[in-house]
Amino acid sequence: MTPAETDTLVRQLISGDPAAAAAILAHATTSNEPLVLTAAALLAPAAPGLLDRAVSAAARPADRQITALAAAHLAGDRDRVTALAREYLLDHPDSVLAAWIAAGATSTHTATHTAPQAGTAPAPISKESS
To answer: What average pLDDT score do residues 90-109 get?
Structure first.
């Protein structure tokens, strides 16, 4: 998969395309792409081997940061997710995966130990919690 194809697939996943979720999980069985493996780990949090593989494959600093962000989310560490997402999105403002993770981590409707669901919008954040 090319980086452009991976980006398109992640964008389709976040927009709610169920075929994209299936494609990411299918690609994750043989992929060494950190973004594919990270997205798959968010889709299948009961499969910790996916995130471990993403961490192992993450050679670039940006890839290491996104895997750390996903790990914090899957661990339910909202404060760490917020801090990591802010830092990551400063350098990579076009990262829909990072924004999606952050939105799921701050949503009051998303359990702290599960990945955000494709196609769901985060709950509005009140002024008091900003």
So the answer is: 79
